[in-house]
Amino acid sequence: MRLTQEDVAELSSRLEERSPIEIIRLVSQALGRRAGVLASMQRSEAALCHMADRAGLELDVVFVDTGVLHPETIATRDRLAATHPHLHVRTLSPEKTFAQQTREDGVLYLTREGQERCCDLRKSAPLRAIRGEYDAFLAPLRRDEGGARAKLRVVELDPDLGLLRIHPLARMKKAELLGYLGANPDAAINPLHGMGFPTIGCFPCTTPVREDEEERAGRWRHLAGVEYCGINPTDRRSGGVGVDVGDRVRALFEGVGAPLEQ
Q1: Residue 220, pLDDT score
Q2: Could you give the residue ranges of the DSSP H alpha helices within 84-196?
Q3: Which of 36, 115, 230, 233 is 20 to 30 Å from 159 by CA-CA measure?
Q4: Which pLDDT belongs to residue 4?
């Protein structure tokens, strides 16, 4: 079944006023294990995973271990797996170790072009390797993160992976997110958030952030103008490219009263 961004606009509109847990439930009910949570062990994902698990929803949590993550991030993954019994953590890895990549291609992240290639090899390529196994990824992006995400829709298409990207937390403000996590201390929160890291990536390209800086100032600080790794289609401005998705997606449209004509 082929969809465009325009095809999912009605679905996105109908989900706009739904609560995060309602959206997660609808996706899980329609797609079952063909839906997964895409997580890099940051606080938005801690909330998303906590909601799904405490609702008793059986979902995969797809985590890419780039091989150059902080040990606290790996420990958070392990804590999530141990404390969220309904979720099934699935770890993906790049084809090459970071040492192998560096021997063959050099230290890529020192230039903007190299950073794009490094992020593609270590983050995006492992996800492309499982293309076709999922019909939708629940992702933790929020509009108040600003930048390209300010116009985030609840449902978008991911041309690279051939699936829906669904953002249950799209309308959630930072204060609401922090309030949820404060009220649920059993959520798996990465301790780096308490050490000056508002957002967290690979350790060579992530630094702490001062209180007077933007949240993402610590990402690729050494490369002017770089804000995102490119793993999210929202950040890539993917436009209206057509995407072939699994036919089970039709059940999600029907579940919110937005049946597809095709």
Answers
A1: 85
A2: 98-105, 112-119, 125-128, 174-183
A3: 115
A4: 81
Residue 83 lies in a domain: yes
d(CA 191, CA 80): 13
Does residue 261 form part of some domain? no
> What per-residue confidence (pLDDT) applies to 228?
63
Q: How far, in Å, CA of 256 to CA of 22, rounded?
A: 11
Instruction: Evaluate whether 217 touches 145 at the Cβ level (below 8 Å).
Output: no
Structural domain harbouring 35: 2-255
pLDDT score, position 147 = 75
69-118 pLDDT per residue, tens: 999 999 999 999 999 999 999 999 999 999 999 999 999 999 989 999 99
Question: Residue 156 belongs to a domain with what CATH number?
Answer: 3.40.50.620
- The conformation of residue 220, written as its DSSP 8-state character, comes to S
Domain count, the chain: 1
Contacts of 152 (CB under 8 A, 6+ apart): 141, 142, 143, 167, 170, 234
Residue 213 CB neighbours (<10 A)? 12
The answer to whether residue 88 is domain-embedded is: yes
Here the contacts of 210-218 (C-beta below 8 Å, separation 24 or greater) are: 214/146, 215/145, 216/145, 216/147
**Could you give the CA distance from residue 109 to residue 196 in angstroms, rounded to a whole number?**
22
Intervals of the chain under pLDDT 50: none
Q: Tabulate helix, strand, coil % of the chain (nearest 5).
A: 45, 15, 40
Identified catalytic residue from 49, 119, 202, 229:
229
Residue 241 lies in a domain: yes
For the question of residue 202 being annotated catalytic, the response is: no
